Amino acid sequence: MHERTIAELAHGLRAGEYTSVELVEALLRRIEDLDGRLNSFITVTAEQALAQARAADQRLRRGGGGPLTGVPIAHKDIFCTDGVRTSCASRMLAGFVAPYDATVVERLKAAGAVMLGKTNMDEFAMGSSNETSWYGPVRNPWDTGRVPGGSSGGSAAAVAARLVPGATGTDTGGSIRQPAALTGITGLKPTYGRVSRWGMIAFASSLDQGGPMARTAEDVALLLGAMAGFDPRDSTSVDRPVPDYAQALVRPIRGLRVGLPREYFGEGLDPAVRAAVEDAVRVLESQGAEVREIGLPNTPLAVPAYYVVAPAEASSNLARYDGVRYGYRCEDPKDLEDLYMRTRGEGFGAEVKRRILIGTYTLSAGYYDAYYLKAQKVRRLIRDDFARAFEQVDVIAGPTSPTTAFRLGERLDDPVTMYLSDVYTIAVNLAGLPAISIPVGFAAGLPVGMQLIGNYFEEGLLLNVAHQYQLATDWHRAVPPGFE
Amino acid sequence: MEWEAVIGLEIHAQLATRSKIFSGASTAYGAEPNTQACAIDLGLPGVLPVLNEAAVRMAVKFGLAIGAEVARRSVFARKNYFYPDLPKGYQISQYELPIVRAGRVTIQLDDGAEKEIGVTRAHLEEDAGKSLHEDFHGMTGIDLNRAGTPLLEIVSEPDLRSPREAVAYARKIHTLVRYLEICDGNMQEGSFRIDANVSVRPRGESAFGTRTEIKNLNSFRFLERALAYEIERQIEVLESGGSVVQETRLYDPDRNETRPMRTKEEANDYRYFPDPDLLPLVLDEAWIEQVRAELPELPDARRARFMAEHGLPAYDATVITAAREVADYYEAVVAAVGGEAKLCANWVMGELAGALNRDGIEITASPVGPEALAGLLRRILDGTVSGRAAKEVFEAMWAGEGDADAVIEARGLRQISDAGAIERLIDEVLAAHPEQLAQYRAGKEKLFGFFVGQVMKASKGKANPRQVNELLRRRLDAEG
Q1: Per the CB < 8 Å rule, is B273 touching A326?
Q2: What is the number of domains present in chain A?
Q3: How far is it, in rounded angstroms, from Cα B43 to Cα A319?
């Protein structure tokens, strides 16, 4: 059963081939047997999952429910879940249980999906390797000596290892797409404002966006359909109807204009990754797409601008973790300053502290104009780059990450190299555009991902292109050895 | 050397919305600690602010009322600092682009002259919670009921030159926000708080001196006294060769002095930046015009109308329009009496205000309503009671003895207006004082008042004084 996609499971549940309870029990066993190798879950909610599965089965028996009814999923532990601990993979949120569901959780619950648990991640979503988690690193099922990418590394590893058919993630600078690429799955970062941020713990509010991760574009479409939509509780969510993503998948892509940014195929790109992506582009061409080279000249400014904006917002977003109201508090504080210093000193990990320090610095009097304001101007330039590109093409294609999965510990002491590994994904967040990563082959036995970037609210087109590609290829069916 | 004070005020007016500025929690005052703080007010992880439209409407009303520029686009910013009663570690405020810019109000000075005071800006922000230091045995309690309450911070230009001017300006703003019904103005409960920036300079100098800020003044009297003290203190410092330190000070009303607040040595850097959780606030013309159409008659316009149409003196018009409820009461009395505005004003400002003040009652809860007071004034005007007796009638009405006519009857206060009766009293008085009469006739005309007093006394105060005067004059002149 674990081999099946969400679409297949939905069919099997409806046809009565198995019940949701049987499915959930099978996957819970799998998690118990296999997750010791991966550490992809922080919390497994077996009892709640079985209760939800029983309710789903009842609905299914009466002929009710939708395509997600009874389908098991997992949530990145950045989404608040009513009554179930939410840690953001930080010691700082030790013992924290939210009295509310994130909108994403609420909507998937309403769609009948069954939550198996909360997945591991980089602490407060800060990282590209899932090594900064207080609950230990996640390992890549394709090679457990390597990272799964981050920050949504737990969701990616769990989906790739067939512990769960789909999961939620969040993407601030590539945190859905890069781990999807490094673990050989499909992950979509929606347009900023498409998916509500209510209940999703903030890292960098103007960049954060929740999105689905699964094995196929079709599954991602099913999950996105349930997650997306206006939410009056999030002022940045956009009031715009949600199209039927599943229906849009089947259109042929003849005449589709695909742009290849020359800046995404230059120095630093692993030749094997490049070769796999070029092969994938040829598949699209064979399906009738017209490919042309384009320019995104401000690409080199994206990483520096991101590492001003994101830490600045983070330094403020993470100020609420002060040991006063909830979460971690140091032992026996002597006075207020001691409470603040030791709580935050002990509660946050090194990467989080580094970013708080960077952000505090860039917002400081005398530096604000030179850093924060300038970074905002760069964002405008990057948006303009994309706007010009979308006058010529329908989608932009390129590698998701310059390399395949790297070894655990390899870049931990070299933050700049780590930051640069997000070079192709970060500009998308700065511009607020949607983008998807799909598996397009292997290099030395490790998955390679291709990123497709669309214009605002063109998630349907991205899923359409990805699905058409997946009809012609079977990279997305590859199973990591040992997780068959 | 002659010194001149330069004062600017920052007033925090708590907006009278039912729910908080970024959450649905209630803003009601006086609830049990932390019972009116929802997940958003507590700054739990993952929560987001949503702007309360009612707060925006109130800020725009204020902007329109002071002839300010109402920003078509304003931006909420985060002011970052750590404090236990600030749940998110930042306060959502407006910084570079406030909702209300450049307006002005006119104040009346003690000499009757008018002065225009610039309002630099007014911006929306959320209040913090409260730290409670008592009752916790060396610890601090945090009450977050107030966290997220909407405030309008109103910043004046440094146009004020004396504590009296500062009070006149603060009262003016207080009057205005209550007319607009955007703030209850309750200073005890902290709904209207004043911070004063003050410096001194030699008269004629155009550069400003170094200023100090006096925080959290919660009455007009304290504002005046704190400023007077602080101005004196700064002059003394300068005259003795010292220099004023730029600092925040607190006013201690018990000792009538200001003291520096204990602060960190380095200046706070609030690291303001636009709040990414809130979109820029964009107002369209039609919406603003709709708010403008809802504005009530403002105190300045009402004051001008009372002077032009009712013929009230400037002083009376100012006092009566200072509070919307008083002006409403006064207008109701004038309407019921059918004119006689000055008499109505005298009674509202005199007997009524005195009784309200004495018993600590709001005018809207006055035991003598405008109709009842009008009933009494009509009896003065038709000569049924004398002005003096009317005061007794009023007190009896206040005590609940019934309307004016009932009290007049019950207490026998009807005025003697019968000429024959008064003439008989005059006869008695003249007969009883032959010596004074002789002196009067010899030219000591001052004694006329003596005779009036004696006649009034003989009538036990009930004789109509105007008639006593007339009849007595006629009698004495006729015999002269």
Answers
A1: no
A2: 1
A3: 10
